[in-house]
Design goal:
The chain has 75 residues and is α+β, with helices and mostly antiparallel strands. Helix content is 33%, strand content 17%.
Length: 75
């Protein structure tokens, strides 16, 4: 779960059963690049991962500035 929080994930539901655990998390798509590989590594290949679009959200001014600077070298 810490890995998801580091990726700006927000846990919205945590379901625990005797045999498994299901997390529902809202996270920016850009921050999930490579997560599937990380999850398999952390769980020795026993976990699975799926995702679907929930909504679009406006970037904060700071996030917008960082992206513009990275893409253009300006600011």
């Amino acid at each position: 779960m810490n890995n998801l929080i580091q990726r700006r994930g927000e846990v919205t539901e945590d379901l625990v059963n005797n045999d498994y655990r299901i997390l529902h998390v809202l996270a920016p798509l850009a921050n999930l690049v490579g997560y599937s590989t990380d999850l398999r590594t952390m769980t020795s290949g026993t976990a699975s991962f799926s995702m679907e679009l929930d909504h679009y959200a406006k970037l904060s001014e700071e996030e917008e500035r960082k992206i513009i600077q990275k893409k253009t070298g300006l600011l």
